[in-house]
Amino acid sequence: MNSAADRLPRLPACQLCYQKKIKCDSTRPVCIPCSKAGSDCVVLNPSGDETFSRAEIDRLEQRDKQLSQNLHTFHIDEASATNTTDQPTAEAGRTVASIENSSVSHGEGLRSRFMASLFTNPDLRRNNTELLQLLARVPSAPEPAFQPCGLPSAEDGEFLFEKYLSWSHVQSPFLRRDEVECLSGRVFLLAPADQPASNHDLFRTFMILAVGAVFPFRNGTHTQHPEGYYLAALQHMGSDFLTRGLASIQDLLLICRFGIYHRIGTSIWDIIRLCGRLCIEQGLHLNENPSSNFMQAQMERRVFWQFYMIDRYSSTLLGKPFGIDDRDIETSFPADANDEDLVTANQSLTDFSAFRLSHITLETTEMTVFFTSVLLRQISSQIHTEFSRLAQNYFESSHSHFAPGYIYTTLDRLMKDLQHWRDDSPVFQQPKCLYESQSWYDLLLAREQLYLVRRAIDLVPKRDRKTPRHICILCLKTALRTIWTYSTLCQQRPLITHTRSYFHMMFTAGLSVLFCVSTATRLEKEDISDASAGLFQCEETLKDMSQQLPSARHYAAVFEALRRDTTRKLNKILDALKSDNPPQTRGPNDVSSTFRPSSSDRSSSSLRTSNYLALGSQASSESNILGTNLDARLQENSFRGNITDNLAFAFPGERVIPGDTAMSLSSVRDNYTALAVPDNFSPGSDLFEWAFLNDETLWNMESVLGEYVYGDPDRHIGASDAFEFQ
């Protein structure tokens, strides 16, 4: 037997052994039975429609072994050469070489101090003095001091409770609706003056008021700031806060829910980890015999899967480990039924599992949106797990050449899973809140696709430190889709209110566009124009969001500075392209169909047509006009259907079409004659100042904002205040 066979994967039975039903060994290049019979040793592929010679398999395996050895030797020689080169001194700061040799880190939470690198980078200070002065003028966001408030009037209290039930409860039903209504009655209607409500009732009341007041306060229909209710709730926590069993987890989830919109003084991720420990202590993750009380069994599942949903999102955003592995979860989903249906069924049935499996409803229920959200988080959990496994298994030097194939097949499969999730999303005939609207599901799809593509870019092998064009274009279009979808949704107020989570999403999408246009090996003129328009819209949306989120003002200013610096360079590329082509007016109908406004917006499109290609410093002064008129309404059909059609994802196989308008940002110098660029144009010229944008800091800087959303607030406050601008 070939000694290498023991170290190679076992091959399936050959055709001869399969037909004769005899044992087939894994010997290469021919199995023993075929060798004795003198017949060809061939195997069927898994689908059974093609045969492969075992001798050919052996040849390919030997070739792979030889190439792997050569690659390993190459890496050793390259490492030796790198060690002999001069390294930049500490006084010289980060040079272009040091930036290009940096690597993307994975899963380290706060992966890079972008604010620090932004203000201390010597190249950026020297070449972008105006940019830094702009950031220096951004005032620090004032942190108003709120005081605990008292209970509102009964009328206002009932209004805020109803707002909670009709909005937050729709996506996060970890409290029983009837218990929330009873709590409102006990506190606002039935509590006698000489018998005040219990500490637990008051804590939960103030927390529900805090969450319910988010929308009314921002819309101007309620005067009390939600943080006043939150601070009042903290006064009633009590020493037994964590000893109430399931109720303790529900109280912690209320704090997490409020923390999505306002400061809570600590990390949401830390609180949700505590929720996870309590869930495990109480066995909520196990598939034990459920209680004969249907509502009790239902609530245990609702609470656990609510923890799961927040844990998955906060952990993936921060790059931190999950609170519980998917393989350790045994419990099933809650029953797809309204609370009153469960109470009615419990009068005649005693087996909750049997009811859950047999109950069929043709209409949406109280659980519909919740199920849809949890299913999406299961896919995001799979994304995290799959790509973490790829990073671990296929990036040793002996296996790195396998990485692209596994990455692309995993990306394609998960993209299809996300599209199937969107296709199966519920349809509400009369949406009553954001979570029942189709636009929200479109936004969730775009956000998750962007996360998936970014994970793929983190791992895909680079050539000359450049991301492959096909996946870079996929990332660009996914990021632009996220920007336009959210910008469209923002026009549907008061259905939606800005949150730090949405701000992080938009900021990340904008950074992804910047990254793609600065590192792509080749871009079409249409891609450059779409990217420029998307960056303007992203900037305007971030500015609008910072009006409701004052603590995000610095991040909006950072993005504005980066956008100005990038569009100035893109403008020069477009000018060069226009000088090589007959001048023509580019209107809204010439925009890429993926991002084309709907017919309802064409009446306002004339305002932006003339300025559409004005992308340089001249356009910066007019950005408010341009941004205001870049209306983001999109045709819904533009984003439906197969993801391959929508986002042009395809496996590597790039073709250069003669006469196309593609522009390689990395090869502009090679084409400067054709583009009528002066002969003295050099990499030191303004067009080639991509050093900072090529830094993986640009790719990882959103991790700082991740701490701003779900992490420890002390890790990001004042990050830019520690630097002086001289």
Automatic annotation (TrEMBL):
<keyword id="KW-0479">Metal-binding</keyword>
<feature type="region of interest" description="Disordered">
    <location>
        <begin position="575"/>
        <end position="607"/>
    </location>
</feature>
<keyword id="KW-0539">Nucleus</keyword>
<dbReference type="GO" id="GO:0008270">
    <property type="term" value="F:zinc ion binding"/>
</dbReference>
<dbReference type="GO" id="GO:0045944">
    <property type="term" value="P:positive regulation of transcription by RNA polymerase II"/>
</dbReference>
<keyword id="KW-0805">Transcription regulation</keyword>
<keyword id="KW-0238">DNA-binding</keyword>
<dbReference type="GO" id="GO:0043565">
    <property type="term" value="F:sequence-specific DNA binding"/>
</dbReference>
<dbReference type="Pfam" id="PF00172">
    <property type="entry name" value="Zn_clus"/>
</dbReference>
<dbReference type="InterPro" id="IPR001138">
    <property type="entry name" value="Zn2Cys6_DnaBD"/>
</dbReference>
<dbReference type="GO" id="GO:0000981">
    <property type="term" value="F:DNA-binding transcription factor activity, RNA polymerase II-specific"/>
</dbReference>
<keyword id="KW-0804">Transcription</keyword>
<dbReference type="GO" id="GO:0005634">
    <property type="term" value="C:nucleus"/>
</dbReference>
<dbReference type="InterPro" id="IPR036864">
    <property type="entry name" value="Zn2-C6_fun-type_DNA-bd_sf"/>
</dbReference>
<keyword id="KW-0862">Zinc</keyword>
<dbReference type="InterPro" id="IPR007219">
    <property type="entry name" value="XnlR_reg_dom"/>
</dbReference>
<feature type="compositionally biased region" description="Low complexity">
    <location>
        <begin position="592"/>
        <end position="607"/>
    </location>
</feature>
<dbReference type="InterPro" id="IPR052202">
    <property type="entry name" value="Yeast_MetPath_Reg"/>
</dbReference>
<feature type="compositionally biased region" description="Polar residues">
    <location>
        <begin position="581"/>
        <end position="591"/>
    </location>
</feature>
<protein>
    <recommendedName>
        <fullName>Zn(2)-C6 fungal-type domain-containing protein</fullName>
    </recommendedName>
</protein>
<dbReference type="GO" id="GO:0006351">
    <property type="term" value="P:DNA-templated transcription"/>
</dbReference>
<dbReference type="Pfam" id="PF04082">
    <property type="entry name" value="Fungal_trans"/>
</dbReference>
<feature type="domain" description="Zn(2)-C6 fungal-type">
    <location>
        <begin position="13"/>
        <end position="43"/>
    </location>
</feature>
